[in-house]
Each structure stands twice: as C-alpha cells, then as structure tokens.
Amino acid sequence: VREMLQSANLAFSLGVMLGEGVTSALWRYGSDEQKALYLPKLITGEWSGTMCLTEPQAGSDLAAVRTKAVPEGDHYRIIGEKIYITWGDHQFTDNIVHLVLARTPDAPEGTKGISLFIVNKRQVNEDGSVGDKNDVFPVGVEHKLGIHASPTCSLSFGSNGGAIGYLVGKENEGLKYMFAMMNHARLGVGLQGVSVGERAYQLAASYAKDRVQGSVPGQGRATIIKHPDVRRMLMLMRALTEGGRALSYAAMAHEDFGLKEQDPEKKKYHHRRVDLLTPLVKGWCTEESVEIASLGMQVLGGMGYIEESGAPQLLRDARILPIYEGTNGIQALDLVGRKFLMDGGEGLKELLGETQALVKDLKAAGDEKLGIIADALAASLGAAQQSAEFIGANAKDWTVVGATAFDFMMLMGGFVAGDLMARAALAAVKLNEAGEGNREFNDNKVLTATFFAQHVLSRNLGFAASICNGSETIMAMAEESF
Q1: Which residues partner with 156 through β-bridges?
Q2: What secondary structure does DSSP assign to 1-53, as a single string?
Q3: 11, 102, 318, 474: which has the fewest C-beta neighbours closer than 10 Å?
Q4: Rounded to whole angstroms, how far apart are CA atoms 4 and 105?
Q5: What is the pTM (predicted TM-score) of this model?
Q6: Are 434 and 353 in contact (CB under 8 A)?
Q7: How far is CA 165 from the centre of its chain?
Q8: Separation between Cα atoms, residue 222 and residue 237, nearest integer Å
Q9: C-alpha angle 168/174/180, rounded to 5°?
Q10: pLDDT tens string for the chain (482 positions)?
C-alpha cells in the first residue's frame, strides 16, 4: 500500500512515512503516558510527525548538534534551530509532533550527550485536545530541486523564551532512540526508490507502445517498443524495479518476523538480516531509482524533457533519495563498518551460504533459464566473496574501507536482489510445472530474472575489480590539484 501511495505522489506521501516513524520511536521508547497521548492521533493521521536532527553546522555529523534543552519542572525548554525538516510545518493536520535531538546543560560532548524530546506544534492538554501554539516556528521554506509537494522547513525553537519539550526515555540516549525512527525511515526511503521506478517504468512502457518512430525490418513504420535499444531500456527499468521491490519487501518481512518471532535464535537471525539489508535497501534501491527515472526520460526522448510529460518530476523527485536519511556514502560505511567488519562478517557469511544452496537448487531444477541464472548468481557470489576478503584483509587502512564501501554496497545490493529474483523464478517454474497460477505472469517473472542475471549481475564483476584496486589512485592526487 505504501508503495502505491508513493508512486502516486512521492512528496505528499512523505508526511505519512514520517508519521509512521514517529509512531515507531514512541511505541518503542515512549512512556505509557506518552503512548496513550500521542499514538492514537498519530496512527489515525489526525496528527503528523517530523524528525528534527539536522542543524546548519551539523548535517550528518550529529555529534555537532547544539540545540539546548533546559530542565524546567516536568518539562524542558528547547532552544535552537533545525534545518531541512521534511513536512516541518503545514495546515493538513491539527497538530505536528516534532521529535527533536538536543543537549541538556550537563550533557557529555559528542553523540553520547544527545537526548530526544517531543516538541508539539501546539500544546497538548491532558485530555488529548490541542491547546496554545508552542514556541516553534518555520523561519524558512526550502526551495528544492524536487519533491515540491513536501514542505521542507527551517524551524526555530525557543525564539520567544523556549519551546516546551518532553523527554523521551532517558537523557543522553536520544541517538539510540532516533535510530529506531531512522532505520524505519531508511527502509521506507529504499521503497520510495522502488515506487518512483515503478511509475517511471509504467510511463515509459505506455509511451513506447504508442509512439511511432522509425521502422523495423519487415514491418515498416513501427512503435518504438519494437526497437531493441528501447527494449533494452524498458527491460532494465523493469528488472531494476522488480529487484528493488524484492529487496525492500524481504527486508521488511524480516523486520516483521523479528518483532513477532518467539524463538530467540530465529529472532536473532531476522535481526541480523534486517541490519545487513537496511543499508542495501536504502543505498542500492535509491541509486537505481535515479537510473530508472533517467532511463524513463530517455525512452520518451525529447518529450521526456518537457514538463508536461511527467518524466522530469520523477527524475527530480528521485534525486533526493540517495541523499536524505543518511547519504548513500554513509549507508555504505555502515554496511562495511558496522554490518560486516564489526561482527566478523557473521551475517554476511550466513547470507552467502544461503545463496550457495540456492545455486544448487537452481541447477537441480533442470530448466534452461534457471541454469543461466544459476551461473550468473554463482559468478556474482564469487565477486562478493572476493570483495569481502579484500576489504577484510585491508580493514586497518581507513582509506581502503572508505574508498571501497560504496562499490561494495552496490555489489551486495544487486547480488541480494538477484538472489531474491532467482528464488521468484524458481517458484514460478515450479508453479508452471504444477499447472498453477498465471502462466504468462510466471513466464515473465522467469524472463525478467534471467535478464537481471545477464545484464545487472554482470555489473558485479566490475564492482569487484574496482574494490580490489583499493584506494591508491583515489587518494593519490594532492588536494590543491582538484
């Protein structure tokens, strides 16, 4: 459902996603009183929510946050400025629940001294009704490249004495609490990439079926969908979108299983997998969304560059996705530093082992296309293992980790998407053999997975070669030469 909302209007649906994120953070870490007061209105959508992290001097570096929280009775006075706040102010809901990172007077330096506070646009009475305006105001609206239906604001807290805020959980643990919201949002942003990709694909495919241009042998004048290069672009758009969807949905399914599973070992397994997949969903899906939206514009040709076609909006909207909720460079470092090197690669080895077993199952199925997929997946598996070994062996050199992390994220994102599409293809073949399901749908699933194996997984060999070339030429040039 969220994917459909985001395909319809990515910018407008951001308000819904942020409300979900605030709900998730308060559900996990809020007091019973806070849950009772806020969650019903957030869940119905009567109130919306925001994440207030970024400050003018503190972008992704949250250690530099300066917003102050001064204790005053049962609440705090919040004083500071936040920028780039998505859906920061509007008139669509009766109230806005801002989750704000700030420092108490005696807080330690760095990220260890950050606390999380609820700051309402309007005060909330004990009975849940909305009261007077709080001391938080928009002081600017950002003029952005895209997502124009999303009001992105600079917010001033406490310009008239201090905004009233309420502590969530314990002091100095705000970063941990905010990451509950951020990880939820990172999976959501990855799905936004899939959503934009799906809309771009539908637009391009529809246009290609109608637009007559040029001719093809034996048929004369033809619609452009008959041209091989247009087919190449449409198949790439389709395959990348389906791969991203599989990757996103799988991560979210593991998240659900991790919440509901009672067996401790199975629960740990799902948590490990969500941790590993989150930077891939956010990073790979959003990078590919920009490529898909750009391809969609290319399919439309000159008309694609005209606003009324709708294609430019999709490319502009997609471009924010690799940037917000932690740039994809940060996602890559998270993947390598926290999700791979920190635990000795346990989660990664587990995943690679599952793919090894899948390759055997694909070969055993005796289907020609599944055999092609198996060979490509095995080659990509080798590229992943080679890359992981190189990074592990050179992990003490911080430049190697930093220089190879992005390519490793892209390699692993495509690899896991390919694994999941291969599983879908295997299931589709078995359904056909059993005479079940929609044969045309099943055949197209196998065909798309085969295309992905041949034309997307092949990129991973290049990523592996780049990774194993290390950081030398990346870091060699003198700064003044740039």
Answers
A1: 81, 137
A2: -HHHHHHH-HHHHHHHHHHHHHHHHHHHHS-HHHHHHHHHHHHHTSEEEEEE-
A3: 474
A4: 45
A5: 0.95
A6: no
A7: 29
A8: 21
A9: 90
A10: 999 999 999 999 999 999 998 998 999 999 999 999 999 999 999 999 999 999 988 777 777 889 999 999 999 999 999 999 999 999 999 999 999 999 999 999 988 999 999 999 999 998 889 999 999 999 999 999 999 999 999 999 999 989 999 999 999 999 888 877 788 889 999 999 999 999 999 999 999 999 999 999 999 999 999 999 999 999 999 999 999 999 999 999 999 999 999 999 999 999 999 999 999 999 999 999 999 999 999 999 999 999 999 999 999 999 999 999 999 999 999 999 999 998 788 999 999 999 999 999 999 999 999 999 999 999 999 999 999 999 999 999 999 999 999 999 999 999 999 999 999 999 999 999 999 999 999 999 999 999 999 999 999 999 999 999 999 999 999 999 99
Contact 223, 190 (CB under 8 A): no
Q: Is the distance from CB of 72 to CB of 105 less than 8 angstroms?
A: no
**Nearest Cα to Cα of residue 68 among 41, 105, 31:** 105
Residue with the two structure tokens 């950002």: 142
Contact 254, 274 (CB under 8 A): yes
C-beta neighbour count of 478 within 10 angstroms: 6
- Phi, psi (deg, nearest 5) at residue 170: -105, 155
3-state secondary structure of 322: coil
CB atoms inside a 10 Å sphere around CB 51: 23
Rounded Cα gap, residues 256 and 274, in angstroms? 10
Whether the CB-CB separation of 89 and 151 falls below 8 Å is answered with: yes
Q: Cite the DSSP H helix spans in 110-212.
A: 174-210
Residue at 171: amino acid letter: E
What is the helix (H) or strand (E) element at residue 100, kind and residue range? strand 95-102
- Known catalytic residues are 325
- Assigned token pair, 210: 């109608």
What are residue 75's DSSP bridge partners?
72
